[in-house]
Specification:
The complex is a heterotrimer of chains A (561), B (216) and C (413). Chain A is mainly alpha-helical and 561 residues long. Chain A has 25 helices and no strands. Chain C folds into 2 domains: 206 residues, D-Maltodextrin-Binding Protein, domain 2 (3-Layer(aba) Sandwich); 165 residues, D-Maltodextrin-Binding Protein, domain 2 (3-Layer(aba) Sandwich), CATH 3.40.190.10. Classes of the chains: A mainly alpha (561), B alpha/beta (216), C alpha/beta (413). Chains A and B meet through helix 19, helix 20 and helix 25 of A and strand 6 of B.
Chain lengths: 561, 216, 413
């Protein structure tokens, strides 16, 4: 049975993505019988390229995605290089982990409420300077998309940081650092020259996922990106929602173009990796020690702190807004507070939390089961060749959602599965499983194989070894992966709405619907509601092993990774 | 174990290759209670040979020859069906189980009943002079205690042969000779054919058996 | 591994079981109700669940919808579930993709809150069920004579494919604590902005409110407004639109952010007024402004007003897709929404504050009194204060204006 699980998993990942892509490709070339499109044509492409400002939209998606990714990766690498193994490093670990449970849109709203011309920061300035009106400058929705980049960077840093953390133990980084230090290298130079080359291959996939996400993001872009014109992904959504149904053709071409943009961005990134590798290889052995790196270390700490601080402070603003009475500019705090909205929404939230779990728990359980089965199969068959094929599990993270989600909806309709819990769970699974695999595969593969060998030689069957040795040893990694999976399913908007046909009102579909009303109090309340489940998940992932193994000191070290 | 012929561990022209390169080739028979030492530099495939004998060597290695234990051909058997115990340089006590849990893990399933199984474990602890350690966290033990628990664990699984993969290299020198003699005494007492790989000549000398040098 | 497989299979079985027992949709087709025979409609509707796709951005409106759902459950045994949308077009897209997949029965959408372009598009593509609206009992109260837009949705005849639900009219609002006088024509607005640059903006077309502003200006500036009632391609559209583009040429540089950025919708424009980023904003319902004051979104010194030469007004409706699963239930719900009782509550700013589609003189006396006695809220305009209601142009003008605007002002970089 176990042998077939990797294939099953890949089918569950690739099937929906390919079906969805076909459903997008056909209308992109003029085929959509419901709207009278029966002959293939290039008209949708011509119509799309005739759109004013298309070049700028493409640039905003492509360049800003690359820049945001490069900045996030640089800050994380620099910070790890500068502070790995120190107390600051561990403190940052504790701050950044909970930030993972903040949904992208919530973080973006928090950032907007913070840095907008009428936001908290300007209000502080206004108090001092005596301004009565917010300055008329575009800080968010700025023409260059700097706010968009900032929003993406602040949210991607925690993700990349934690992915790096799970890769660190395998590179024996602490001792490497001792060696480079004893050879006279500065901390940062030593890390970049000796550790990075070993770490980077491990985090390459998360980095590419961040790149794909950043070049095709919709929700964060709606909140922070420029609108004259908007990035391509946002315009696609606009065309898809246009009352003029004929725009569906052009929207589909644009969705294909969006996929091409992501592929191009990845190609550039990979070329960049090569270049850095060549230059870096020479640089690594040129003997320069860079001993005086105190200033750079300081800067890296400040940057990481600003990124984390922005998200945290953004959440505080959301919290204040959620209880605000009328709050005029430039007041630092509202004139009055009210729990009225909280009270009424708390009444209503129960159902959507239940629905969220009704979808989330099966999706996470199935994802964790499949991933564990794939990894266990890898151990038992002893084959490494399969690993390369498992790369395909990440396909859903690399293909932009907007490029296949609408096609997928049609596909599920054809199967007659639309609107059922099964299809929504399967739709979520497509996004949950890759993240579970991403966070579980490293610790699973890093587990000392001799534990399993010893247990086998003690006469335990492979099944017993899995349940009684490997699984308990990986308790925390499995729970963390499940928490990551839960955070992913809670955050899904398009798949829930489209595949579920609106039958499944989750915390996120409610939040997005209410956010369209523009009341910052509601945005605050639902932004915080959205965090509840992922946060609880991560907390349990920490708490359960701590309680379970409270008398097992060795488990602390075991579960570090 | 049925009281079948105790012929010891026979390695008939066993050759381990990786990517076409031969790592190790041996042909020897280890009698019950005999301790054979394989000496050789790192990378000479000593550990791969042990992996092959206990059945945990990855498919990537090509192996020819035959492994026979007490008249049973081991090749093709699953590791858990071979009755070959192994000790590594790390004790590899399961950190999620108590000391007693680690030992109980190894007690064969044919010993039924909680009391009987517990009695086995307690007896083993007693023979290691570790009475009262059943509920202890392995992480709180000293190095010598951990090594003894690891040894007791492998013996509780009732192996028909024992493999030692540089078992003493991580112990400090005072402890090393003490643990060595405990291990070797028990091997002989239990009439276990034992194969030890090491690069410490003292190990071979202390074992008092044949010492086979492998080329690099 | 058997036990692991068992876990997996049972998880799957659980999911399948839940899906098929509690959440599946009826596989049989819902026969078209015979609206002429009202009792048969009620009989058919009983036990149905109506999935009503409606914009869900306003908690008060969501509450109103929930109330209406309770009423029809108690009275007619019809369950109502609101599917909260961010954009009405999402529901249109869904019906379309179902048609693509050949789902001509048992569709996901039973009713849509709709008007204007979305209605025109659905009607044009045969995505609607009907006619049914004018045969429902409560349609008799609708003010067809006094409010012609209840059967002409942006000049497109409704042909009984949608039932009127509420009236909307553009009104502007400002903070009386900050402004003494306000511009009351398109020309005055421009002059006022010259003196107060950056203190006004409009949502970015093709947002509905933004396009409405452009149409308001167009209607005011065009020499012969009746041209706008015809489809644009039957007229000299370029000449008709010329005054609008001339006006915007002057207006754009004076806007908030110099016209480089726009609020995304009416709600974010309201936020700008609350933050003192702009001085004047507008909405499709003055009752909404009162509600916003109630909800602490605006200071209580904000008041509404209309332009001297009138402002655009229209009607919003509910429609039923051609493949709806619960057509009879939707018809019953739509009929209830037109009832005097439901319309009275809708107009009460305590619950919503949106104008009724009913004719007062057709109502029983007690209902007339109830409507007359409503406290409309501090920033709401009484019917007498609303001036002339200007008709919406034909939807083709909206498309034309949006496309041209996008070319001229949608790309500033």
């Amino acid at each position: 049975m176990l042998r077939f699980v990797p294939i099953l998993t890949l089918v569950l990942m690739i099937g929906p993505v390919s079906a969805g892509l076909i459903g997008t490709l056909l209308p992109a070339f003029g085929i959509l019988p419901a709207l009278g499109g029966t002959t293939p044509s290039l008209d949708p492409w011509q119509a799309m390229f005739a759109q004013p400002g298309l070049g700028t939209s493409i640039r905003l998606s492509f360049v800003n995605g690359l820049i945001a990714t490069a900045i996030s990766v640089s800050i994380v690498m620099l910070f790890c290089a500068a502070w790995q193994g120190t107390r600051i490093f561990h403190a940052m670990q504790r701050v950044l982990s909970p930030i993972l449970s903040v949904p992208h849109a919530t973080a973006a709203f928090g950032l907007a409420f913070l840095i907008a011309p009428s936001g908290w920061i300007v209000r502080v300035v206004a108090q001092v300077a005596g301004w009565e009106r917010p300055p008329d400058i575009a800080i968010i929705h700025d023409p260059w998309g700097i706010a968009l980049i900032a929003g993406l960077v602040a949210k991607e840093i925690p993700f990349l940081f934690l992915m790096t953390l799970s890769a660190l133990p395998q590179a024996d980084t602490d001792r490497t650092a001792q060696v480079t230090a004893s050879l006279g290298y500065g901390r940062i130079a030593g890390w970049f020259k000796a550790t990075l080359p070993r770490i980077y291959p491990q985090i390459r996939l998360p980095v590419l996922a961040v790149l794909a996400y950043s070049t095709s993001v919709v929700d964060v872009a709606i909140i922070l990106a420029p609108t004259t014109p908007a990035p391509l992904s946002v315009r696609i959504l606009g065309w898809l929602s246009d009352p003029d149904l004929a725009l569906r053709f052009m929207a589909s071409s644009a969705a294909v173009l969006q996929l091409l943009i992501v592929i191009a961005a990845m190609a550039i990134w990979i070329a960049g990796e090569r270049l850095v590798a060549v230059i870096g290889a020479r640089w690594a052995i040129d003997g320069n020690r860079f001993k005086q790196d105190g200033a750079v270390r300081g800067v890296s700490a400040v940057m990481a702190l600003v990124a984390a601080g922005t998200v945290v402070l953004g959440l505080v603003v959301l919290l204040v807004w959620s209880v605000a009475g009328f709050w005029a500019f430039p007041d630092l705090l509202p004139r009055g507070f009210s729990l009225r909205l909280w009270a009424r929404e708390l009444d209503a939230i129960g159902n959507s939390l239940t629905t969220t779990l009704l979808i989330g728990i099966p999706a996470v359980v199935i994802a964790v089961t499949l991933v564990l089965a794939c990894l266990e199969n890898e151990v038992r068959s002893g084959k490494v060749a399969g690993r390369r094929a498992m790369f395909l599990i990440y396909l859903p993270l690399l293909v932009p959602q907007i490029s296949f989600m609408f096609g997928l909806q049609v596909f599920f309709s054809l199967l007659g599965l639309e609107r059922t819990l099964v299809s929504v769970v399967l739709g979520h699974l497509v996004f949950v499983a890759p993240y579970v695999f991403l966070s579980l595969s490293e610790p699973f593969r890093a587990l000392d194989p001799r534990y399993g060998q010893t247990a086998l030689c003690l006469g335990a069957s492979p099944t017993r070894v899995f349940w009684q040795v490997r699984l308990p040893l990986l308790t925390r990694a499995v729970l963390t992966a499940a928490a990551v999976g839960l955070a992913v399913t809670v955050g899904q908007y398009l798949p829930t709405l489209l595949i579920g046909a609106g039958r499944f009102a989750t915390v996120t579909t409610e939040a997005v619907a209410l956010a369209s009303g523009g009341d910052r109090r509601m945005i605050g309340i639902y932004g915080l509601f959205q965090m509840v489940l992922p946060f609880a998940g991560f907390a349990l992932a920490l708490l359960i092993p701590a309680v379970l193994f409270r008398h097992r000191r060795g488990m602390g070290a075991q579960n570090k990774g | 174990m049925p009281e079948a012929a105790k012929n010891g561990l026979e390695l008939h022209d066993v050759r381990v290759r990786l990517d076409g390169r031969e790592l190790v080739a041996v042909d020897l028979t280890i009698a019950p209670g005999e301790i054979v030492t394989l000496m050789g530099p790192s990378g000479s495939g000593k550990s791969s040979l042990l992996g092959h004998i206990c059945g945990t060597l990855p498919d990537a290695f090509e192996v020819t020859g035959q492994v026979v234990l007490d008249g049973r051909v081991l090749d093709g058997l699953a590791p858990q069906d071979r009755h070959v115990g192994i000790l590594f340089q790390d004790d590899l006590l399961f950190p999620h189980l108590s000391v007693g849990g680690n030992l109980a893990f190894a007690v064969p399933a044919h010993i039924k009943g909680r009391a009987a199984r517990r009695a086995r474990v307690e007896a083993a602890l007693g023979s290691a002079e570790m009475d009262g350690f059943y509920d202890r966290d392995p992480a709180t033990l000293s190095g010598g205690q951990r090594a003894r628990v690891a040894l007791m664990r492998v013996l509780l699984s009732e192996p028909c042969a024992l493999l030692l993969d540089e078992p003493f290299s991580k112990l400090d020198s005072g402890l090393r000779s003490q643990i060595r003699s405990v291990v070797f005494d028990l091997c002989r007492k239990n009439s276990l054919p034992t194969l030890m790989v090491t690069h410490d000549p003292e190990d071979g000398a202390a074992a008092g058996g044949r010492v086979i040098e492998l080329r690099g | 591994m058997r036990s692991k497989m068992r876990t997996f299979v049972s998880a799957l079985a659980l999911a399948v079981g839940l899906a098929t027992t509690t959440l599946s949709t009826p596989a049989f087709a819902d026969p078209a109700p015979d609206v002429g025979n009202w009792q048969s409609v009620l009989d058919q509707a009983r036990g149905q669940t109506v999935y009503w796709h409606a914009w869900g951005g306003e908690p008060r409106i969501n509450d109103y919808i929930a109330w209406a759902g309770e009423q029809v459950r108690e009275r007619y045994g019809v369950e109502v579930v609101q599917v909260k949308l961010t954009d009405t077009a999402d529901a249109v897209t869904r019906v379309l993709s179902e048609k693509t997949a050949g789902v001509d029965d048992g569709g996901a959408v039973d009713m849509i809150w709709i008007n204007g372009e979305n209605f025109a598009a659905m009607k044009r593509n045969d995505l609607l069920f009907g006619p049914w609206a004018e045969q429902t009992p409560n349609f008799a109260y609708v003010d067809v004579e006094g409010k012609p837009t209840v059967i002409n949705d942006f000049t497109v005849p409704t042909d009984g494919l949608e039932a009127p639900w509420g009236m909307a009219q553009v009104s502007f609002y400002y903070d009386t604590a900050k402004l003494d006088s306000v511009p009351k024509t398109a020309q005055q607005l421009l002059e006022w902005l010259v003196k107060h640059p950056g203190r006004f903006t409009y949502p970015q077309p093709p947002n509905y409110m933004g396009s409405t502003f452009l149409k308001q200006i167009l209607t005011e500036l065009v020499a012969d407004p009746s041209v706008l009632q015809q489809p644009a391609d039957e007229t000299d559209a370029e000449a008709t639109l010329a005054p609008l583009w001339g006006y915007l040429e002057d207006l754009q540089p004076l806007l908030w952010r110099n016209g480089q950025a726009y609020p995304q919708n009416g709600a974010s424009m309201r936020t700008l007024l609350a933050d003192n980023e702009v001085d004047i904003a507008f909405s499709f319902s003055s009752g909404e402004v009162s509600s916003a004051i109630e909800a602490f979104e605006l200071p209580d010194t904000v008041r509404s007003y209309v332009f001297e030469n009138g402002t655009l007004g229209n009607t919003n409706f509910v429609a039923i897709p051609y493949n709806a699963s619960a057509k009879a239930g939707a018809v019953v719900l739509a009929d209830f929404l037109m009832s005097p009782e439901a319309q009275l509550r809708k107009q009460d700013p305590q619950y919503w504050g949106a104008d009724t589609v009913l004719a007062m003189d057709k109502l029983p006396a007690d209902m007339q009194d109830a409507f007359a006695n409503l406290d409309l809220g501090i920033a709401s305009l009484a019917p007498s204060e609303r001036g002339t209601v200007l008709p919406e142009p034909h939807p083709s003008w909206m498309s034309l204006v949006e496309t041209e605007w996008q070319k001229r002002y949608g790309v500033v970089q």
